[in-house]
Amino acid sequence: MVSVVNMLNPGQPFDISAAFPNAGSAINGLNTALPYLSIVNSIAHGDAVGAAMGAIAMTPAAPVAWAYYGFQLITSLFGDNSVPDPWGSGHYVWNGMNTGVSAVGATGGDQVVSGFMNQMLSSLNTLIAQEQQQNPGSALGLIPDRMPTLSYGMQGYNFTDIDPVTGVQKNPGLRYDTSGKPYNATPGSPESFMSLGQAFITSAIARGAIAPQWEVQTAAYFKAANDAVFEMRWAA
To answer: What residues pair up with 162 in beta bridges, in sequence order?
Structure first.
């Protein structure tokens, strides 16, 4: 299987127009770009390609900016340090056979995290729906356990980018500013050319978050069974 990461030429910015010449005018918005993105179709046929990344760049980290400006406004009104710094963290969870978002935080940080993660979830689900529309026989879904977790604070965004081969977190110190740009990435590195949205979706796809529906159902059943066993042991 071709990895999404392998499609990104190390040291060079990802160029969706080179991969998909007809998508040049489409990347003005996520909904417009989706018809040109074949990544989910590739996954359905066992070949994960980095086609969706350009579209996600159109939805970077706007919720972070909103929370930041709101925090600045609140602190200016109080004129002291009585307002705690915003922070938040979140992860994807099973909601029956579907995927939901669980987030905690303070001073609006939980809403920042929840907003961004739901945005990414919507993007992934739209890609799946697009594939199923074009190929009705392609039954796909999401496995939340394979999707990144996210944290937010005064230093910006950070997400868990787990290497699908080694299981080790990549670039744990990487941070993204309020515009979704990796402000402390090594200049010239692949990470320096990717927005938060691009990197987040890349990680999810590389880890197999989009999977055949039978695999999604199997993972959900195992999760439910493990939770039931845990509850019985706890009750005992």
So the answer is: 169
The single-letter code of the amino acid at 132 is: Q
The β-bridge partners of 101 are 92
Residues 6+ apart with CB under 8 A from 217: 97, 141
Cα(56)–Cα(29) distance, integer angstroms: 9
| Partners of residue 99 on adjacent β-strands | 94
Residues with Cβ within 8 Å of residue 100, at least 6 apart in sequence: 92, 93, 94, 144
Q: What is the pLDDT of residues 80-110, one digit of tens each?
A: 556 678 899 999 999 988 999 999 999 888 9
* Token pair belonging to 135: 């190929």
Residues facing residue 100 across a β-bridge: 93
pTM score, whole prediction: 0.67
Question: How many residues are listed for the chain in this entry?
Answer: 236
The pLDDT value recorded for residue 55 is 37
- Report whether 127 contacts 150 (CB < 8 A): no
What percent of the chain stands above pLDDT 90?
Answer: 40
Residue the block writes with tokens 């990435």: 185
Q: Smallest Cα–Cα separation from 190: which of 50, 38, 47?
A: 50
Buried-exposed string 169-181: b where 16+ CB fall within 10 A, e elsewhere:
eebeebbbbbebb
If you ran DSSP here, which 8-state letter would residue 27 be given? G
